[in-house]
Amino acid sequence: MSKSKASGPSRYEMLFIVANNYTEEEAKTIVAKVESLVTENGGSIAYREFWGKKKLAYVIKQNHYGYYSLCEFDAEREAIAKLDRTLRLSHEVLRHQIISIKALSDEERAKIKEKQAQSAVKNEKKEEKTGKEKIQKVVAGKNEKAEKDESNKAELKDLDEKLEGILNNAQDLL
């Protein structure tokens, strides 16, 4: 029994970033152009997502932002090499990455998105909780400061009364 990989098209995932020099409509046409490159090289697109404009982790070719797009497709290995070379030479695409993946059904993809949404909600709740705790600390700090101010005012009143008494005694002596 052979352990070699089955021939035929494999499933790939490609994430690429279009430069921020373009409007969103122009970026979408560039995404369509990249997807047409896939089909021209014998691939067939199974799934696509346009994530829109996002901040880059670091500056790439003087761009702080870029338009992200995700695409899953089936293609032969030879087509991937051609696609990779074309994208590397493209001035419109800042970065791209193509990886081999296991094909996902729509149900599996929906489960993954649901888990991501749930974890996002948990993170928001955690951030909200820490935000509330920070607010409570600030309020407690302000309350402590107000109490200190009140005690300082009380001490000042005592000092004022003593000073007044001393001044009155001094006037009586003169």
Fold topology:
Blueprint: E1 10-19, H1 24-40, E2 44-60, E3 63-75, H2 77-89, E4 93-100, H3 106-173
Antiparallel strand pairs: 1-3, 1-4, 2-3
Strand content: 25-35%
At the first level of CATH, what is the class of the largest domain? Alpha Beta
Strand order of the largest sheet: 2-3-1-4
Q: Could you name the CATH homologous superfamily of the largest domain?
A: Ribosomal protein S6/Translation elongation factor EF1B
Element order: H for helix, E for strand: EHEEHEH
**How much helical structure, as a percent, in the residues?**
55-70%
- Which runs of at least 5 residues are low in confidence (pLDDT < 50)? none
Number of domain modules: 2
Task: Output the structural class.
Answer: alpha+beta
Compute the number of strand runs.
4
Task: Tell me the radius of gyration.
Answer: 33 Å
The chain-level mean pLDDT equals 82
Q: What is the level-2 CATH architecture name of the largest domain?
A: 2-Layer Sandwich
Give the N-to-C terminal Cα separation.
121 Å
Largest sheet: 4 strands, antiparallel
Looking at CATH, which topology of the largest domain would you report? Alpha-Beta Plaits
